[in-house]
Amino acid sequence: MSNFIVKPVLKLLLVFAWAFLSTAAADPYNVTDPFMAEYAGFWNARNGAKGRLTIQVRPLSNNHYDGFVLFNRVKTPVTAIKLEPATEENGAIKFSGNTVLQPEGDLLAKAEIACELRDGKITGVFNGEFGEGTFDASRHERTSPSLGAKPPKHAIVLTEPGNSNSWQNLTWRLNRDGVLRAGKGNILAREKLGNFRLHVEFRTPYMPIEQGQARGNSGVYLQGKYEVQVLDSFGVFPLQDNDCGGIYKVKAPAGTASLPPMQWQSYDITYIEGTAARPPRITVEHNGVKIIDRVEVPAALVEKGTGGGDANAGFLMLQDHGNPVEFRNIWALPFFSAERTR
After folding, report:
1. CATH of the domain at 46
2. 278 belongs to a structural domain
3. Calpha distance 80→97 (Å, rounded)
4. 3-class secondary-structure state, position 214
5. How many Å apart are CA 197 and CA 267, to the nearest integer?
6. Do residues 229 and 245 lie in contact, with contact meaning Cβ atoms separated by under 8 Å?
7. Domain-terminating residue out of 140, 172, 206
8. Any idea what the Cα angle at residue 291 is, between residues 252 and 236, rounded to 5°?
9. pLDDT digit string (tens) for 235-289?
């Protein structure tokens, strides 16, 4: 074949290859990260103390990673360690870390660690007020037990493919699998409900160069006023009220139930409407873990909400915060007695 033909063909192939790679790199749900994960294992001190530990490692920009380590004895937290940012070199990451500063009232033992992540395993040493010793952990794939929960009879379904009647303004694309991707403004439910149980499944995009509120941000607004935060908070500890699972300006989630970005997660939320004697109460289960239990909305927020909502929404508003967060399997079951939530 002549150069006259070969050169244009090669040029065309390069253009297609570049377009393919660019598209793959731009897809925040089609990324493989060999280090981002939750790891579970055990720690053993020379004084005989021992227990379980959980580690979350998350990506940052410039090939850096950080995260945290939770040491537990039986079900009691012993300490929490922040992993300082470290760079992958030769297929491994070497971390160091110290005790995370806790909110006032949470007393955890002071400690420091050094460890290495390689081939899906973390091994390290610790030294602290509860002793000194070693620990190891392996990659642990955790999923929400309520994923795929079927809407019960009389439930209001908001993600049935081909049906937009449950929304006042469905400006997001609802695909044939019943998946909504945030964009083109907030969307508002049509129904008006008092007490209800809400099931929502969501996943956040892979956005390692972003931090804080710029990292996979959206929100589930109850009654269009009270925001249960949606955010990529994987690898963050302790969590604030504007982290994933928190009720913004009301209550931070207990512990950390977040899963990595790109992985489907679930909220199971119970909302009990307020009365003249008592404000609304909200319970949140995140990936099957109760992280907020019947917290009362502060009186100052009952009328104005937590900000960013829409007073004209039905019982639910989903927020467009500029990030391509996805939702699916959204349904709500109304009920008439608060006693039925116990």
Report:
1. 2.40.128.120
2. yes
3. 10
4. helix
5. 10
6. yes
7. 140
8. 60
9. 999 999 999 999 999 999 998 999 999 999 999 999 999 998 999 999 999 999 9
